[in-house]
Recover the amino acids of this structure.
C-alpha cells in the first residue's frame, strides 16, 4: 500500500475505481435481474447482455484513436457523467412498467432496457480504455504489477464482493433503489477523476482516423505475443460470457436463490478476485509471467465444469471463487506486459485493438448462451439446457489451455 500513500494521483484513481466499481457491481446484479423480472425467456435475457457488451465490438477501435488524441482524464469524467444520466434513464423506465412481470408482450420493455444498456456499455468502453491507458502516466513502470494488482483487487472487492449483495438487498426493498445508488457512484467517480493531476502530453498531429487506426494495427501485428494474447482473451471472454449470461437463470431455477442469495454467491466468487489481486503479484514474481499465465489457463476450465455438474449453492460459490481468481492471475500478467511494451503515443490505439479482439467476443458469447438454452430446452429439458453452456465453456477452455501451453511465450 506504499504506492497509495506516496502517489496522490494514483490514490485518486484508486478511489474513483473503487466508487465506480461499486456502482458497476450493483448494476451487474440489478440489470440482468431486472430483465428476468420483465421476462423469463433466455433469448430475451441474453439480448440485454448482448446489447450491453456490443460496444466493445463496435467502438473499441475508434475510441482508441480518441484516447490517444484527447485528454484522457476529461474523457473519463465525461464518460462517468454520461453513465449517471443513463442510469437515471433506467430508473425512469422502471417507473413506466406497471407491474412485474408486465402484462402482454414484454419485448418493448426489453428493447428499451437493451438500448440503455448499449449506451451504458459505450460509455464504459471510453472510460475503461482511458483509465487503463492513463495508468503508466501516473505510476512508474517498476510499480505497474503492484498498481494493477491493487486496482484489480479494489474492482473485485467493490464490484463483486460488496456491490452484488448490496444490490440484492436494495432490489428487495425497491426495484429502482440499486440504480439510484449506481447513479450516485458515477457522479462521485467523475469528481475524483477530475482532481487527478496527469502530466501534459504533447498534442499529436491530426490525421485521418483510418490512418491512425492502421498504425495501431501495424504495431500489434509486429508484436505477435500481444496479438496472440488478445485473440486468446477474446476466446476466454466469449465462452465466459456465454456461461455467465445464463448464470442468473441458473441461480434462480437450479440453485433456488433469491436476489440477495445470488448477490452472496457473486460475493463468494469475488473473494477469489481479492485473493488473486493480493497474492497474484507475489505468485507471478516467484514463478514468472510465463508460468503465471499457464496457471491461469489451467484454472479457467474448472469452474465451468463444476457448475455444469452441481446444484449446490456452496459448491457453485467455490467454482466462482476459482473463476475470478484465475481471471485476476491472467489480467495482472497480461495487462502489465502490454503496458510496459506499448509506446505511450500508441497506447490508446493498441489497447483498443486489444480490447476489440479480447472483449469483442462478449456480445457473441451472450447471444450464444441464450440460443443454446433456447434450442436445448425442448430435447433436453429446462435444467439440462441451463447446464449446457457451462459444459461447452469447460470444453473450450481445455482446448485453450493446450494451445497456450504450446504457442504462448512471454
Amino acid at each position: 500500500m506504499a504506492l497509495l500513500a506516496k502517489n496522490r494521483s494514483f490514490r485518486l484513481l484508486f478511489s474513483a475505481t473503487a466508487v465506480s466499481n461499486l456502482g458497476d457491481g450493483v448494476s451487474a446484479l440489478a440489470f440482468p435481474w431486472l430483465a428476468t423480472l420483465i421476462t423469463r425467456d433466455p433469448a430475451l435475457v441474453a439480448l440485454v447482455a448482448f446489447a450491453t457488451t456490443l460496444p466493445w465490438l463496435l467502438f473499441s477501435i475508434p475510441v482508441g484513436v480518441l484516447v490517444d488524441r484527447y485528454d484522457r482524464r476529461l474523457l473519463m469524467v465525461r464518460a462517468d457523467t454520461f453513465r449517471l444520466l443513463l442510469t437515471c434513464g433506467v430508473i425512469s423506465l422502471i417507473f413506466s412498467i406497471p407491474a412485474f412481470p408486465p402484462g402482454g408482450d414484454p419485448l418493448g420493455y426489453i428493447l428499451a432496457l437493451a438500448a440503455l444498456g448499449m449506451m451504458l456499455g459505450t460509455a464504459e468502453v471510453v472510460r475503461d480504455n482511458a483509465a487503463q491507458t492513463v495508468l503508466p502516466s501516473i505510476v512508474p513502470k517498476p510499480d505497474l504489477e503492484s498498481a494493477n494488482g491493487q486496482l484489480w483487487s479494489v474492482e473485485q472487492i467493490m464490484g463483486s464482493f460488496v456491490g452484488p449483495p448490496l444490490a440484492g438487498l436494495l432490489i428487495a426493498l425497491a426495484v429502482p433503489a440499486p440504480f439510484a445508488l449506481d447513479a450516485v457512484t458515477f457522479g462521485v467517480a467523475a469528481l475524483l477523476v477530475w482532481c487527478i493531476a496527469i502530466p501534459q502530453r504533447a498534442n499529436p498531429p491530426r490525421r485521418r482516423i483510418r490512418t491512425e487506426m492502421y498504425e495501431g494495427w501495424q504495431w500489434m501485428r509486429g508484436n505477435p505475443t500481444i496479438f496472440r494474447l488478445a485473440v486468446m482473451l477474446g476466446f476466454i471472454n466469449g465462452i465466459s460470457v456465454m456461461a455467465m449470461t445464463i448464470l442468473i437463470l441458473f441461480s434462480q431455477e437450479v440453485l433456488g436463490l433469491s436476489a440477495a442469495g445470488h448477490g452472496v454467491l457473486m460475493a463468494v466468487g469475488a473473494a477469489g478476485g481479492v485473493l488473486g489481486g493480493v497474492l497474484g503479484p507475489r505468485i507471478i514474481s516467484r514463478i514468472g509471467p510465463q508460468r503465471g499465465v499457464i496457471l491461469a489457463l489451467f484454472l479457467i476450465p474448472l469452474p465451468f465444469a463444476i457448475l455444469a455438474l452441481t446444484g449446490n449453492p456452496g459448491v457453485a460459490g467455490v467454482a466462482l471463487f476459482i473463476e475470478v481468481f484465475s481471471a485476476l492471475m491472467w489480467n495482472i500478467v497480461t495487462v502489465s506486459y502490454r503496458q510496459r511494451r506499448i509506446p505511450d503515443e500508441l497506447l490508446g490505439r493498441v489497447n483498443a485493438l486489444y480490447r476489440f479482439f479480447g472483449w469483442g467476443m462478449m456480445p457473441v458469447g451472450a447471444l450464444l448462451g441464450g440460443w443454446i438454452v433456447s434450442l436445448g430446452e425442448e430435447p433436453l429439458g429446462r435444467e439440462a439446457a441451463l447446464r449446457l453452456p457451462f459444459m461447452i465453456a469447460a470444453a473450450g477452455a481445455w482446448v485453450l489451455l493446450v494451445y497456450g501451453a504450446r504457442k504462448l511465450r512471454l
About this structure: The chain is about 85% helix and 0% strand. The chain has a mean pLDDT of 86. The chain has one domain: 2-200+207-407.
